[in-house]
Amino acid sequence: MKSFAVFALAVTLAPTAFAQHQTFVVNPDASEVKMTLKTTHELVNGTFHVQSGSIEFDRSIPKMSGSVVVLAGSGKTGNDSRDKKMNKDILEVEQHATVSFEPKTYTGAIAPSGDSTIQVTGIFTLLGTPHEITLPMLVHLDGTSATAKAHLVVPYVQWGLKNPSFLIWKAENDVAIELNLVGMISR
After folding, report:
1. Cα distance between residue 87 and residue 152, in whole Å
2. In terms of DSSP bridges, do strands 98-107 and 175-186 run parallel, antiparallel, or are they unpaired?
3. Is 68 a residue whose pLDDT tops 60?
4. What are the C-alpha distances in Å from 88 to residues 92, 145, 161?
5. pLDDT tens track for 130-156
6. What residues does each domain of the chain span?
7. Cα distance between residue 105 and residue 179, in whole Å
8. How far is residue 28's CA from residue 98's CA, in Å, rounded to a whole number?
9. What superfamily would CATH give domain 21-186?
10. Is the pLDDT of residue 14 over 80?
11. pLDDT at 40
12. pTM assigned to the model
């Protein structure tokens, strides 16, 4: 009788536990990464193309896995010569075609629907070098549709990239990144 009660409890709770585990599959065509670099003469704004993304999470435990991959050479700032220099000299796309973020853990709660703000810790890989970061992320779930938005400041010079400054045109050593991921949730 005791084993039947344990079995009945397990059968009752299994769908709830299974429903907690979900995968956020990113739609690259609807997602984007924006960057803003302050310089002495202007704000340089650009966008990068998200190549792929899939993040597994479980609302019952603060673990995540998967990755979001951005094509390093897809950056467009509205100035072809600047973009060429950025790709060749700064992002070194010949050797490092992608930039990625692999979430590992999070704090906060992910609501079954609506908005949730969580702190995501993971590995941001730039020029092939991993950097652990924690960033606030706004997650919105609506049925099977989902979005994830984050803002972060990347100390790109500190992380080994070249500063594009020349003559009297000076760039800051940090770049602001806006991540906007759109996709679907599957169980």
Report:
1. 21
2. unpaired
3. yes
4. 5, 37, 11
5. 999 999 999 999 999 999 999 999 999
6. 21-186
7. 18
8. 14
9. Lipid/polyisoprenoid-binding, YceI-like (2.40.128.110)
10. no
11. 93
12. 0.85
